[in-house]
Structures are given as C-alpha cells and as structure tokens.
Amino acid sequence: MEPKFSDDATMDEIMRMSPAAIRIVLRHGMLCVGCPIASFHTISDAAREHDLNEQQLNQDLQDALVGKD
User: Fold this and answer.
1) d(Cα 66, Cα 3) in Å, to the nearest integer?
2) Which tens digit of pLDDT belongs to each residue from 21-61?
3) Coil, strand or helix at 69
4) Phi–psi pair at 10, nearest 5 degrees
5) Where are the domains of the chain?
6) What is the separation of C-alpha 66 from the centre of its chain, rounded to a whole number of angstroms?
7) Nearest CA to 65 among 31, 33, 22?
8) What are the start-end ranges of the E strands in the chain?
9) pLDDT at site 2
10) Around 16, how many Cα atoms within 13 Å sit in the side-chain half-sphere?
11) How far is the CA of 33 from the CAs of 1, 2, 3, 57, in angstroms?
C-alpha cells in the first residue's frame, strides 16, 4: 500500500512529511512555505484560496509523497 496523507492534513504537515511536496507547491504558484496560514489550510482550502484544481493538486502532492514527482 502506498503512503498517503489524510484529507484533513494541513499544507504544513504535507510539506514536512514530504519535502518533495515543496516543489509541487511552488510549481502550482503557491507560497505556502513559510506562510503562517499553511498550518491551518488543507489541500482543499489551499486549492480554493489559489483557484486551483483540487484533484490535480492532491494527486501531484500524493505523487511527491511516494517519489513520483
């Protein structure tokens, strides 16, 4: 079974679990690294706030977690 983060994981938690996720965050034009709200925003929150496709962002972050980025 591939590693996965929960739907309620914050962007900060995701970036800490997988430093490769930082590249994905930056690639999507988000500046979550160092942002004080990253410890509160889930993927859904971040996608909505940045007008991004939530499913694509989630998939890209999941891929980074398992080393497919």
Assistant:
1) 7
2) 999 999 999 999 999 999 999 999 999 999 999 999 999 99
3) coil
4) -85, 165
5) 14-35+43-65
6) 13
7) 22
8) none
9) 67
10) 8
11) 28, 25, 22, 16
Tokens of 27: 């690639």
Q: Rounded to an integer, what distance in angstroms lies between the CA atom of residue 43 and that of residue 41?
A: 7
CA dihedral 22, 23, 29, 33 (to 10 degrees): 20
Question: On the CB side of 47, how many CA atoms lie within 13 Å of its CA?
Answer: 14
- Residues 5, 7: Cα–Cα separation, whole Å: 7
Measured distance CA(57)–CA(15) in Å, rounded: 13
Note the pTM of the prediction, 2 decimals.
0.88
3-state SS class at 20: helix
